[in-house]
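Why do we bother with holo predictions? Because pocket geometry can differ from the apo form. Keep that in mind while you read this record for D-glutamic acid.
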Amino acid sequence: MSSITRKNAPIGVFDSGFGGLTVAKALREMLPHEDIVFFGDSGRCPYGPREPEEVEKFSLQICNWLAGLGCKLIVIACNTATAAALATCQMAVDVPVMGVIQPGARAAVEATRSRKVGVIGTVGTITSGAYLKAIRNLDCGIQVVSLPTPNLVQLVEDELIQEYIEALDVRQARVMDELAPLLGGNIDTLVLGCTHYPLLYNEIKACFTEDVRLVNSSEETAHDVFETLDRRDEFSESREPGHLRFVTSGVDTELRNRIASRIMGFEITDVEFKSFDEE
Ligand code: DGL
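The structure, written out:
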């Protein structure tokens, strides 16, 4: 690929479902001229309760497909898939593959003063110990308190899929219940270690005192992508808004358009369908 062609190639982004659109949105805001291809594996979501080997297999299928489309860089916009498959994907394709765990871990290490950091994520992410390792690789003196919070994924999915919005106090109570083990634990920084969680940012923030800082790994990852493209001299040369392509394994056309529009904040009517089930 010539350097001009590579500069103008899209960034590939994928997630187990639509939560990863929080990363696509952060990328769009930071890099408005870049083309983005997003794949959400909604037909096989959630990844959180699956065995890591299965998540690795799914991630590899998607990563190879995105590389085949000519993406210049691929973002695994899913913590569970990053924990299970980042290394395998990096070895499988010849473009940079970035996950969401390293950027979030680094931001938490930089932010904490009490040196006590909380991490919430799916069962798969927390069981993998990937955040603990990433944080300890940067600073062995930081205490990490990890908590699986799968019900928060469920809450987001229910609301996105059913468009059933809980009364605000019920919603807040569900979030508070799930986070209860972390409250009063003296953490001063909390990593939102699941790309669904930025969609509950206000509710999570309201559970803690004002001084507790939330790390949104979606935004941190977008920063890292910016820096990587800058160092590689691979920014798009276009001055027009980049083209956004959305693809999902979720079957309901109306639903996938509605969910994508809601997270991205503008109307999307052409989410495409693709399934990897037969591969
Ligand atoms: N978005 C996924 C993550 O960041 C969580 C959803 C799932 O369980 O598939 O881990």
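Residues 15-17, 19, 45-48, 78-80, 122, 125, 153, 194-196 surround D-glutamic acid (CB under 6 Å).
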